[in-house]
């Protein structure tokens, strides 16, 4: 269930409140869209909607930095108005599932189609609808990637780094994040500096720069690595140039790493290793949902690339010929995945289970189990606070006085390793002033 409004009073919840940690049997008072009180004796004014949350966990609403809408984008060129209407449907679906902030990703596609989609986003951002605050702009993912590392994107629509194209994209007013592979041409690093200088969060994915190139990109304004370990991520075990993108992403404290936490894109043992190396504060969980309103149950196509759900529907893959499948039966090549078949609820649940059990690693012999409360707090950091910090949105991703009153009320049951998380209610805050 999803509820929007400017004034709420949540009663009797277990509340995760920033540095204060967990507050038992607490109330959250939201007035004019902002949290004004956290404690046992909070009282709302006349007209405040009261919500009984006894037995539920209250965490900041989730912020997903990478949501795709493959089924819609595969339809070709549409008007900005048509895109805006569709985006409204995506936001409604996401909010029902606990998401109170999301960034919609574009793929490698014709530039006119991407620009129309971005202009549709701008209409939503400017429209002031009750769910418009959920949209946090776009991630332009496919346009400036390394075409050799295209994954499920069509490399025919990948462009070399170009200031003119960048200006067209940013002039839509909807781009908050962008992917630029820093190694493709000598113009890539200056393009990173240009994008960062114009307030865009620059990431690096679907790329294979060596570590020294990555450090040069960081100096120019690179902030994060997009779905580390996937895309694919360039790696090098040799000493030359200090390694590859994977190695530098793990060692460089100036880089945040996002991870697709569906249990398929990154092996759980490796994921726990990498989070330990980066520390939770530099890690972000994303869904990379292939479809913004739920995964398909039948084959699909995007810009000439054929995709299909797995037999059990738990992941999406690029369709390969029988010959390709036979050749890979005895190799480590599992083929390319086509986004993910999950949302942020599953990302959060998977992280809680990852942290709550003792786990053997790949590069680390063993990781200790965290308590349930600490596991939920770590998962919340990766799904709410850290993405808000990376994106630079103030007052998001935390439950604290002065923060936006976006809340996910969760029922959490089960034993470590098989914990289930259900979203009982999503509270999406709005402000009477329309700000």
**Segments where pLDDT lies below 50 for 5+ residues?**
none
The chain-level structural class is: alpha/beta
The CATH topology of the largest domain is TIM Barrel
Tally of domains:
2
Query: Biggest β-sheet: count, sense, barrel?
Result: 8 strands, mixed
Note the overall shape. globular
How much is the average pLDDT?
Answer: 94
Task: Report the total helices.
Answer: 11
Strand content: 25-35%
The overall strand count is 21
- Whole-angstrom Rg: 21 Å
Q: Name the CATH superfamily assignment of the largest domain.
A: Metal-dependent hydrolases
List the SSEs and their pairings.
Blueprint: E1 2-5, E2 8-17, E3 21-31, E4 34-39, E5 49-52, E6 57-60, E7 62-67, H1 70-73, H2 80-96, E8 99-106, H3 111-127, E9 135-144, H4 163-170, E10 175-180, H5 188-197, E11 201-204, H6 211-220, E12 222-225, H7 245-251, E13 256-260, H8 268-278, E14 283-286, E15 300-302, E16 305-309, E17 316-318, H9 322-328, H10 344-355, E18 359-360, E19 366-367, H11 372-391, E20 407-413, E21 420-429
Parallel strand pairs: 1-21, 2-5, 2-6, 7-8, 8-9, 9-10, 10-11, 11-12, 12-13, 13-14
Antiparallel strand pairs: 2-3, 3-4, 6-20, 15-16, 16-17, 18-19, 20-21
């Amino acid at each position: 269930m999803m509820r929007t409004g400017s004034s709420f009073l949540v009663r009797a919840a277990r509340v995760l409140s920033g540095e204060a940690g967990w507050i038992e049997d607490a109330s959250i008072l939201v007035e004019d869209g902002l949290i004004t009180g956290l404690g046992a004796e909070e009282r709302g004014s006349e007209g405040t909607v009261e919500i009984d949350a006894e037995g539920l966990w209250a965490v900041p609403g989730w912020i997903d930095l990478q949501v795709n809408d493959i089924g819609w984008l595969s339809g070709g060129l549409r008007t900005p108005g048509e895109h805006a209407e569709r985006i409204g449907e995506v936001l409604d679906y996401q909010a029902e599932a606990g998401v109170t902030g999301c960034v919609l990703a574009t793929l490698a596609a014709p530039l006119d189609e991407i620009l129309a989609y971005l202009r549709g986003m701008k209409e939503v951002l400017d429209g002031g609808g009750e769910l418009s605050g959920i949209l946090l702009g776009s991630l332009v993912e496919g346009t400036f990637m390394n075409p050799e590392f295209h994954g499920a994107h069509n490399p025919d629509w990948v462009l070399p780094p170009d200031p003119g194209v960048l200006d067209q994209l940013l002039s839509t007013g909807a781009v908050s994040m962008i992917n630029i592979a820093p190694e493709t041409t000598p113009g890539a690093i200056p393009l990173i500096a240009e994008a960062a200088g114009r307030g865009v969060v620059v990431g690096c994915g679907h790329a294979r720069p060596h570590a020294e190139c990555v450090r040069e990109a960081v100096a120019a304004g690179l902030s994060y690595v997009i779905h580390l370990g996937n895309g694919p991520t360039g790696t090098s075990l040799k000493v030359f140039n200090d390694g590859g993108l994977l190695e530098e992403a793990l060692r460089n404290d100036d880089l945040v790493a996002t991870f697709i936490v569906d249990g398929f894109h990154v092996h759980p043992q490796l994921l726990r290793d990498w989070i330990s190396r980066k520390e939770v504060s530099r890690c972000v969980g994303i869904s990379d949902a292939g479809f913004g309103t739920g995964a398909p149950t039948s084959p699909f196509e995007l810009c000439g690339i054929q995709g299909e759900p797995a037999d059990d529907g738990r992941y999406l893959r690029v369709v390969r010929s029988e010959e390709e499948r036979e050749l890979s039966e005895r190799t480590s090549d599992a083929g390319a995945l086509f986004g993910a078949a999950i949302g942020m609820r599953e990302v959060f649940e998977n992280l809680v289970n990852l942290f709550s059990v003792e786990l053997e690693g790949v590069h680390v012999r063993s990781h200790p189990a965290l308590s349930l409360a600490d596991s939920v707090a770590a998962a919340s950091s990766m799904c709410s606070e850290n993405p808000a910090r990376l994106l630079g949105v103030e007052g998001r991703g935390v439950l604290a006085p002065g923060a936006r009153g976006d809340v996910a009320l969760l029922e959490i049951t089960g034993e470590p390793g098989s914990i289930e998380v259900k979203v009982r209610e999503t509270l999406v805050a709005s402000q009477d002033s329309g700000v």
